[in-house]
TrEMBL record, chain A:
Chief localisation class: membrane
UniProt similarity note: Belongs to the FAD-dependent oxidoreductase 2 family. FRD/SDH subfamily.
Subcellular location(s) of the protein: Membrane
First-level EC class: oxidoreductase
Topology in membrane: Peripheral membrane protein
Active-site residues from the entry: R274 (proton acceptor)
Cited Gene3D superfamilies: FAD/NAD(P)-binding domain (3.50.50.60), Fumarate reductase/succinate dehydrogenase flavoprotein-like, C-terminal domain (1.20.58.100), succinate dehydrogenase protein domain (4.10.80.40), Succinate dehydrogenase/fumarate reductase flavoprotein, catalytic domain (3.90.700.10)
Biological source species: candidate division WOR-1 bacterium RIFCSPHIGHO2_01_FULL_53_15
Gene Ontology terms describing biological process: anaerobic respiration; electron transport chain
Superkingdom classification of source: Bacteria
Protein name: succinate dehydrogenase
Signal sequence interval, chain numbering: none
PROSITE patterns: FRD_SDH_FAD_BINDING
A Pfam family of this chain: Succ_DH_flav_C
Length: 562, 230
């Protein structure tokens, strides 16, 4: 039957979280391997621009920064939905992991004293965000990949995760599609660490890479019996480039950029947290003060040519190539776009899920350190801190674990998956996958976007359920085994539909406004009823929603003003 | 409508690549990558190509478009100024399928130059210090996205399979020139010799196709100089 591969730990995903987890497991002396949808430097971590938060105190105005302040800003930014014990772990670890990345070669920008440079970002009063011009994700991911080459981390490239394989009380490994040859292959492991990133491509206008389809989250939700947490909290980045929705970093406002409506007015404090700025921009557009009812302007011209070239060269490049505009001479047309999933696979602060042996880190996970709204600069931090911790705790788990019949569970499951794919490939249904995919994106953007309300969410949920039914009759044109994009994208579509249901159902239930989740029919935060995490489980083919409490340590919820 | 002539090839089935023609509506400011998705979704689900970020930062979609190595995502149809667009895979690399090439030799050479910071000094509690000027020396090279455009365009890499090539040499210089790196002599040993920096004939083909405006020739010349006068 063929178990293709066997390692003590399998990491799924080769972005920052996945590679960091693998490095930690390797350092613990374990046999670890990574499987990835793409070559590691093609992962979405590459696209992060602005920076990574750590209380280094390097910048003028932020000398007395410390982890407590970072914790408070993160908790307040989260609209008090983050688990404060987990945030404390992240902020305490932050300086150490930033220094470690620097020691590994990350080319951070520098202060005049030669220290790591820091810039202001939303939701903090002073510069805390460490950066490498405006390609910080690129600088960090390349450094992490370089380290993984040095440490000879084994990566299986171009595999699409299909399923997590369970044992009675643990995790037996994973099943994945080898995209290169079309084979369905099994990876036996004592522990699995998920690091598969977000699901932004469920939405129409997203800053995310095209590979961010949520396939990892979906596989865990559908096949591992582990719930998703807070998935209705979707971050819309205030400034994505009008037309392509490519990210224009918050660093552009951190460096002093202004937002203008069509009347030439600045209408919001530019460095308020993202949920607030995104709503504010959308309101301008909705009320006719945008341009073409679609965008507003981000003006950098007053920063001057030198600063733009020095601090924001990547942004300039993007504007020139994708919009035909040089921000030195002209303002940038921007609109909010889906950017990040605060929710994800339900884990604790060790990265552990409710299933022994199954861990998750980075955007696919929800610890929760971001609660209802993530601060800019905290996602790169999250990936590395919790990548490292999940690698550490998964290694400890493997070292103490008793062996159980992994192989048998895998081979049974492999047959099931093969039959499922075979059925899909030979489906005679008439449904065109492109229609289902496009309608799903439109539905989410229209009904579960920046502003939400009951009737729209109900409509959205009904539509998602309809699309789930229609998916059962989709037709796959391409029957080739090698590099079958048609098959890959349609397998991803199945997961997208299920995640969409979780997002919309969670948003419909949550009758309050908190962080990124804004209900026009319930515009206030309601701590009495809703200071709790949404826990979504897959039961009998649909989503079942429950809740669990938020951990509060130092900071009692208070009104969130900036 | 824009006519796309796309090279099709499956090493399991075909002896020779063939060109297939597709008509794509040019309704908005469409990139070549978007046009490829249009084809896969509406005309031919069997077409194969790589993609990820669609924002010119991940390096997945390098291919030859109207005679030049480019990123499909970064190439807007209107900028090509032509109603017929011919696309083939990156030259001088083995074709896996259609527009996908095997990047194994590219990454093997990348690994050869020890693409990671080596510093044998005691690790400080905080960061290694680095001045603006020191950091500025590697500013250009750190933008490399490992797309392979330069490697595929290099005449010397095409005619000598052992040549490290412009991308790996740029990476080698990025570490050689990093004020924090202490393995300078070792790095020069790696790039010295006829398959290293000295194979470069300064044709600048690499610089012409870099989507990040890097000039690999600069790094290579700097390495040659350093290797000569070490």
């Amino acid at each position: 039957m063929g178990i293709s591969y066997k390692h003590q730990i399998i990491v799924v995903g080769a972005g920052l979280a996945g590679l960091r987890a693998a490095l930690e497991a390797k350092a613990a002396g374990l046999d670890v391997a990574v499987i990835s949808r793409v070559q590691p430097v093609r992962s979405h971590s590459i696209a992060a621009q602005g920076g990574i938060n750590a209380a280094l105190g390097n910048a003028e105005g932020g000398r007395d920064d410390n982890w407590e302040k970072h914790t408070f800003d993160t908790v307040k930014g989260s609209d008090y939905l983050a688990d404060q014990d987990a945030v404390e772990i992240m902020t305490k670890e932050a300086p150490g992991i930033v220094y470690e990345m620097e020691h590994w070669g990350c080319p951070f920008s520098r202060t005049a004293e030669g220290l790591i440079a820091q810039r202001p970002f939303g939701g903090a009063e002073f510069p805390r965000t460490c950066y490498a011009s405006d390609i910080t994700g690129h600088a960090l991911l390349h450094t992490m990949y370089e380290r993984s080459v040095k440490e000879e981390i084994k990566v299986y490239e171009e595999y699409l995760l299909l399923s997590i394989v369970k044992n009675a009380d643990s995790c037996a490994g994973v099943i994945a599609l080898n995209i290169k040859n079309g084979e369905i292959e099994a990876f036996e492991a004592d522990a699995v660490i998920m690091a598969t990133g977000g699901c932004g491509r469920i939405y129409n206008k997203s800053t995310n890479a095209l590979i961010n389809t949520g396939s990892g989250m979906a596989a865990v939700y559908l096949t591992a019996g582990v719930p998703l947490k807070d998935l209705e909290f979707v971050q819309f980045h205030p400034t994505s480039l009008y037309g392509t929705n490519i990210l224009i970093t918050e660093g552009a406002r951190g460096e002093g950029g202004y937002l203008y409506n069509c009347k030439g007015e600045r209408f919001v404090k530019e460095l308020a947290p993202r949920d607030i700025v995104a709503r504010s921009i959308q309101t301008e557009i909705n009320e006719g003060r945008g341009y073409d009812n679609a965008y507003v302007l981000l003006d950098l011209r007053h920063l001057g040519k030198k600063k733009i070239i020095e601090r924001l060269p990547g942004i300039r490049d993007i504007c020139i190539h994708f919009a035909g505009i040089d921000p030195i001479d002209a303002p940038i047309p921007i609109q909010p776009g889906q950017h990040y999933s605060m929710g994800g696979i339900d884990t604790d602060a060790k990265g552990a899920t409710s299933r022994p042996g199954l861990y998750a880190a980075g955007e696919c996970a929800c610890v929760s350190v971001h609660g209802g709204n993530r601060l800019g600069g905290n996602s790169l931090l999250d990936t590395i801190v919790f990548g490292k911790l999940s690698g550490r705790f998964a290694s400890e788990y493997v070292k103490t674990k008793k062996k159980s019949g992994q192989g048998q569970a895998l081979s049974l499951h492999l047959q099931e998956i093969k039959s499922k794919i075979h059925r899909l490939e030979n489906s005679t249904g008439k449904e065109k996958p492109t229609d289902v995919r496009n309608q799903l994106k439109e539905t989410l953007t229209e009904n579960a976007g920046i502003f939400r309300e009951k009737s729209k969410l109900q409509k959205g949920l009904a539509k998602v359920k309809e699309l789930k039914e229609r998916y059962k009759n989709i037709h796959i044109q391409n029957k080739n085994k090698k590099f079958n994009l048609d098959l890959v994208r349609n397998l991803e579509l199945e997961g997208k539909l299920e995640l969409a249901e979780v997002i919309v159902a969670g948003a419909l239930n949550r009758e309050e406004s908190r962080g990124s989740h804004f209900r026009t029919d319930f515009p206030e935060r309601n701590d009495e009823k809703w200071l709790k995490h949404t826990i979504a489980s897959f039961v009998n083919g649909t989503v079942k929603i429950g809740y669990k409490p938020v951990t509060i340590t130092q900071f009692k919820p208070q009104a969130r003003t900036y | 409508m824009v006519t796309f002539k796309i090279a099709r090839f499956d090493s399991d089935k075909d002896k020779e690549p063939r060109f297939q023609t597709y008509e794509v509506p040019d309704e908005k400011e469409m990139s070549v990558l978007e046009a490829l998705f249009y084809i896969v979704e509406n005309l031919d689900g069997s077409l194969a190509f790589r993609y990820s970020c669609r924002g010119a930062v991940c390096g997945s979609c390098a291919m030859r478009i109207n005679g030049q190595n480019r990123l499909a995502c970064q190439t807007l149809i209107k900028k090509l100024g032509s109603t017929t667009i011919t696309i083939s895979p990156l030259p001088h690399l083995p074709v896996q399928k259609d527009l996908m090439v095997d990047m194994e030799s590219f990454f093997a050479k990348y690994e050869k130059i020890k693409p990671y910071l080596i510093n044998n000094d005691p690790i400080p509690d905080k960061e290694f210090k680095q001045s603006f000027k020191e950091r500025a020396e590697i500013d250009e090279m750190i933008n490399c996205i490992l797309c392979g455009n330069c490697y595929s365009a290099c005449t010397m890499a095409a005619t000598n399979s052992d040549y490290l090539g412009p991308a790996a040499l740029t990476k080698a210089y990025r570490f050689y020139a990093d004020s924090r790196d202490t393995a300078k002599a070792e790095r020069l040993r790696i790039i010295d010799g006829e398959d290293g920096a000295f194979r470069c004939h300064t044709l600048f083909n690499c610089a012409e196709v870099c989507p990040k405006n890097i000039v690999p020739t600069y790094s290579i010349q700097k390495l040659k100089g350093a290797a000569c006068f070490k």
